[in-house]
Amino acid sequence: MDESFRSNLNSVVKKSCKTKYRFYILVTSEDDFFEETKVQLESEGHTAVQPTEFFLGEDCHSSLLIILRNEDIAEHICEVPHLLELRKSPVVQFTGIDEPDDVVNLTHQELFTRGGFIMFDRAGLEHLNLCNIKKTSEVLQELSKTGKWKWMLHYRDSRWLKENARLSLEGKEKQNFLNCCQEAGILEVLPYHECDLMSRDGPDYLACLVRLQVQNISARYPVFITDTTAENAFGKKGILTMTFDSFLMYSPSLTRTA
């Protein structure tokens, strides 16, 4: 693109964007990059805030932009303060940048925009009958009307379900329905990875979900469905935990920000 044309286009874009917002930059080093980004945004009339100001005062309902350098996302995304609470808020947007002026020039990458994915722990899978699997599919299809949702299934769990399909009629019916879900793009069987090693008692769900939220960076919500008391550890990493019943009951709320 011709540089003079790009400059004129950026000028028009910036003039058209009169909305002022609060912003927070995740600083991961002493690189001048972060201060330059802050200066760029403040020069446009936007206001830098600290985590203690995210949800306080009259501005708690005004737009808040969480900014990360793209190269920091994989390693540092979970360091964003109050990540799970921010995901739940409809006034919060996340963005990734390569250059300090990316937000001003609207050349940034939008993160955690809409949709999400779910994962059951093994205990949850063991208690799923065909009726509950169908309910899960229906919920995901309904949620997907406002943003793509998927059910992520570990390879070892997929094999376990297939083995059960050979042992009982119910297992076969469940597997047949899951095959349909996979063909429809509702269910995704994850590639074989360290969680699937037979030498392990089971997947490291926390580490796996943290990795998946980076790999699916546009998904607003990662949801772990479990009956265990793991909420605090997962919540600190930005992951929502629910029981199966609460997922069915509260799933409509996941569309408000997704």
From TrEMBL:
Sorted alphabetically, the Gene Ontology BP terms of this entry are:
negative regulation of gene expression, epigenetic
Q: Name one GO cellular component term.
A: nucleoplasm
In terms of InterPro entries, this protein maps to:
PIN_TASOR, TASOR, TASOR_ab_dom
Query: What residue stretches are annotated with the TASOR PIN domain?
Result: 116-251
Q: Which domain of life is it from?
A: Eukaryota
- Give residue ranges for domain TASOR alpha/beta: 18-112
Q: What is this protein called?
A: Protein FAM208B
State the organism named in the record: Champsocephalus esox (pike icefish)
